[in-house]
TrEMBL record:
Localization: Cell membrane
Disordered: region residues: 357-378
Membrane keyword on record: yes
Lineage: Bacteria, Bacillati, Actinomycetota, Actinomycetes, Kitasatosporales
Keywords from the named record: Cell membrane, Membrane, Transmembrane, Transmembrane helix
Protein name, as recorded: FUSC family protein
Signal sequence extent: none
Pfam families: FUSC_2
Length: 743
């Protein structure tokens, strides 16, 4: 059960965030109670501790301490100005808008600038919420200082967090998710026709989660690993394990299919699967051996080097690794034998992951196949060299996202102040808060619209819960504080999963805070909903009218980036597979994955369930699924090409250079079309990629060879790239004798 939980929360990041915030608030409340502070300042100290904890996102502990130290004077200045300007309506509103502009603009300076801007805004808002006055300013500042101090104690002593510790937990989560995916693949082998759709859905979900964890690990490598070469090594091993496990799922699907299964099956829900007969689990000797070896692979994945226990595990590992060299393959159809080879590749990736995570191991029971795999890893380790990615040129002026967002949110805040004060002269700031929040972590008008809708929905449901809870709690102060802590934990734990759910807990918590401040009434919570609606509307109006970034334009920019990086990975991989110079292919593949994740996030408004454009939603989902399929095959090509300089069994094949030319051309045409460069080019669709090798009289490579595997990935990549032409409305030129291309 713990493994399942750890896998569902990679690195325990959500759990840690919730525990740290709740602990900081609880410690602050204890200290303030010991100082005999009134309820208003208890609330102020608790909200300050919450802000000081969640605002800081620096990775290194030293940077966290510096940001926290700088945040205290910012908070004291914000609350002091809030108290001094409380009676100056025009000056107070003008300063609030200027503060909002500065807080958003400061995001351009990275995590520290974002944190300080967020602290300044939140503490100023807090001064409005508790009604700060100059007479109570010393006590309020003391409560703020205690909140910051307790946040520091919890962050650095009670719930400490270091990059290395996070990385270690992420690696454990990755290992668990690999094991979970192998378990689903075993279910796929045994599934009957009635269970097939459910098993495929599970496999899609676990494959996506494995990929998510791999990206999280890559994002933490630089800070969590002192040695740059070791970080590069771990990145390579994680990528190998991800690709090998994902590929094994496709091979198992092929083994049970009448023809090669379309890779869209793993990326597009409800994609049709070519089946054999009635899809009944086979019970022949080869299938039984396949089931046995899948269970053996699951055992290898789940065990660390420290609990191998005897020679039994080494025997299993040796047998599985032998399949890579055609050792012990049972007589069976080609699809079944490919699945055994896939198990061998997955076992090799598990061995590499163990060496990277656990260090050198006992080699006394190694077979020749295992020894060869270790020698390949040693050669890769020696050849590793640190490389730094070149940063992209930053935009300037109003083209910079932070500058544009600062102007947008400032205009929206002015509208929210006007609209909010028309509703309530005392609680107008709720509209400003909503306007501010809908602009956080959004980059297009569509994203702001969806976030505003989710905020309003969560607020509406939370207000109902607040009414019920406030009535039940009554004047029981500590019961209310206990529920507030529960809701804050739930708020941070669910924030990455659902913004609407997080908004629900925020609003329910605020209902309890109003109860503590003796200002609760049904009218107040209704006003909260109205102010939220005003703030969301003002944010949307500002996003549409002030320097708008339309969703279509943003997705086109990101789509062009994805295509460019896809072309880079494919071309560099084919060049290295053809005997060209070695390059850092996995870094290129990581860049492709990052760009694809950005595109997937930006298309969220277009695929949202309530969107009225149903046909467009299906087109976008299909386009993203095709790109995910292309990225999968590009990663597989990169992983295979990485073996060429070091492996004794994987050799370069110069014929592959010609095989990849059509793919490179088609990607260039698609990228030019998306970039609206007006080239008028056409996508070339022709006979299979393998036919380019047969044209020179050499014939197709035999099944099971590396060249055959590469050609299979090239063929699928070619089909995926040509398939992108239809949703992008790019003309396709069929060559003579062309076969139908599956899109």
């Amino acid at each position: 059960m713990w493994d399942r939980f750890a896998a569902s929360d990679p690195g325990l990041l959500r759990l840690t965030a919730g525990l740290r915030t709740v602990s900081a608030i609880a410690l602050t409340l204890v200290v303030l109670v010991l100082l005999d502070t009134d309820v208003t300042h208890l609330v102020a100290g608790a909200m300050t501790a919450m802000t000081a904890t969640f605002a800081i996102k620096d990775t290194l502990v030293r940077d966290q301490a510096i940001t926290l130290a700088l945040g205290l004077p910012v908070a004291l200045a914000a609350t002091s100005l809030g108290a001094l300007l409380a009676d100056q309506v025009i000056a107070g509103d003008a300063f609030f808008v200027a503060l909002i502009f500065g807080a958003v603009y400061c995001r351009r300076f990275g995590d520290r600038g974002t944190a300080l801007g967020l602290i300044g805004f939140q503490i100023y808002f807090l001064s409005l919420f508790v009604g700060a006055a100059t007479s109570s300013l010393p006590t309020l500042c003391l409560a703020l200082a205690i909140g910051f101090g307790c946040s520091a104690v919890v962050r650095f002593a009670v719930v400490p967090e270091t990059p290395r510790r996070v990385l270690n937990r992420l690696r454990d989560a990755f290992r668990t998710r690999v094991a979970q995916l192998v378990s689903i693949q075993i279910e796929l082998l045994d599934a009957g026709p009635e269970q097939l759709e459910k098993v495929l859905d599970d496999m899609r979900r676990h494959t996506a989660r494995l990929h998510e964890t791999a990206l999280m690990i890559q994002g933490r490598l630089e800070e969590g690993t002192e040695d740059a070469d070791k970080a590069a090594l771990l990145q390579r091993r994680v990528a190998d394990a991800e690709i090998a496990t994902e590929r094994l799922g496709m091979l198992l699907l092929n083994a049970r299919s009448a023809e090669r299964a379309d890779t869209l099956t793993l990326h597009l829900p409800h994609a049709p699967v070519p089946l054999t007969g009635d899809w009944r689990p086979a019970e022949d000797d080869a299938t039984m051996a396949l089931r046995r070896d899948l269970k053996a692979l699951h055992l290898l994945v789940g065990r660390t080097a420290s609990n191998d226990g005897g020679t039994g595990v080494a025997h299993l590992r040796n047998r599985l690794l032998g399949y890579r060299d055609e050792e012990g393959l049972p007589p069976a159809p080609a699809g079944i034998q490919d699945a055994f080879r896939g198990i061998g590749e997955a076992a090799r990736s598990v061995l590499g992951l163990r060496l990277a995570l656990d260090g050198p191991q006992d080699e006394s029971d190694d077979s020749p196949a295992t020894t060869r795999s270790r020698e390949e890893f040693d050669a890769e380790d020696i050849a590793l060299a640190s490389s730094e990615e070149s940063g992209e040129e930053d935009r300037t002026g109003l083209q910079r996202p932070t500058t544009r967002a600062a102007f947008q949110v400032s205009v929206g805040s002015v509208l929210a102040i006007i609209g909010g004060e028309l509703l309530s002269a005392q609680r107008w700031y709720w509209a400003v808060l909503t306007c501010w929040v809908v602009f956080l972590n959004t980059a297009s008008t569509g994203e702001i619209l969806v976030k505003g809708y989710r905020r309003l929905l969560g607020t509406l449901l939370g207000a109902v819960a607040g009414v019920v809870l406030a009535g039940l709690v009554g004047d029981r102060t500590w019961v209310a504080f206990a529920l507030v802590l529960v809701f804050i934990f739930a708020m941070f734990f669910t924030a990455p999963l659902s913004y609407a759910v997080m908004s629900f807990f925020v609003t329910a918590m605020l209902g309890l805070l109003y109860t503590l401040l003796n200002s609760y009434s049904f009218d107040v919570l209704v006003l909260r909903i109205e102010e939220t609606a005003i703030g969301a509307a003002c944010g949307i109006i500002a996003a549409v009218l002030v320097l708008p970034v339309h969703t279509d334009r943003r997705t086109d920019e990101l789509l062009g980036t994805v295509l460019d990086r896809l072309g880079d990975v494919a071309s560099a991989s084919v060049e290295q597979l053809s005997g060209g110079p070695a390059s850092d292919l996995l870094s290129k593949a990581r860049g492709l994955d990052t760009a694809l994740d950005d595109l997937r996030e930006s298309t969220g408004p277009l695929t949202y369930p309530i969107t009225p454009l149903r046909g467009r939603r299906q087109t976008v989902r299909y386009l993203v699924a095709l790109l995910e399929t292309c990225a999968y095959h590009a990663r597989a090509l990169a992983a295979t090409a990485e073996l060429v300089p070091h492996s004794k069994t994987v050799a370069a094949d110069p014929r592959l250079q010609r095989a990849g030319q059509r793919i490179a051309h088609n990607i260039e045409v698609l990228a030019a079309h998306v970039g609206d460069e007006g080239t008028g080019g056409r996508v070339r669709a022709g006979a299979s990629i393998a036919s380019t090798l047969r044209d020179d009289g050499s014939g197709a490579p035999p099944s099971g060879t590396v060249t055959f595997r590469v050609l299979r990935h090239l063929q699928r990549l070619d089909e995926g790239v040509v398939g992108l032409a239809r949703p992008l409305d790019v003309p396709v030129a069929e060559s003579a004798g062309a076969k139908g291309v599956r899109g």
